[in-house]
Each structure stands twice: as C-alpha cells, then as structure tokens.
Design goal:
- The protein has 107 residues and is mainly α.
- It has two domains: 43 residues, no CATH class; 50 residues, no CATH class.
- The chain contains three helices and three strands; from the N terminus they run E-E-H-E-H-H.
- It has a three-stranded mixed sheet, with helices on one face.
Length: 107
Amino acid sequence: MPILLPDGTLLRGPRVNIPETTGHIHEFPVDADNVNQWAETGWVDLRVSSMTRWIERINRIQRTTGDHGAKIGNGSDEALGDFARSFKPGEVVAFIFADEFDGARIK
C-alpha cells in the first residue's frame, strides 16, 4: 500500500493496486488530480490536508459520543466511549460510514 508523505514523497513496494490497471493500460499521468484521487481511494495519506480531516473526524466522534459513549452500527458494537483511552478501528470505520456516507448496516 503506497504511503504519501507530507512533502509529497511516495513510498511504495513492488506492487500498487491503486491506480487500478485494466487491460493493457499500465501507465497513468501523475498529476495533482490523480494523486489526490488515488490517495483518497486507497493510499495512506499523511499530508496536512488529510491529517486535518482526521482531526476533524476524531473531534466529531468525541462530540457525538460525549462521556457516555454511543452505540454505532447494528447496536451490537461496543460504545466508542472515552476515545482518548480506547481506540477501536472497526468502530471508527463504522462511525465514518454512518456519519459521512449516511450508511447503516441493515440485517
């Protein structure tokens, strides 16, 4: 998985899945728009703009959950609770899906 550093340097291994190659197309123009799209789609983006968005997300989670925590997902998830002491990636992802994409899991 590529890692985009704050200075725009890209760290990557021998295989990159994004951008996705289809057919015989294996070359892509590397411009700001494509880099932003690829970073959004599946790279680890450590640029200031991405970190700012994560800070805003974490603040929103903390405001939403308050001191008592909040049930998210299908209701069987544990409360996010005191986010400063306990970070559960699955719960954060569920919160982002529900909050930013209006998604909810339906049984």
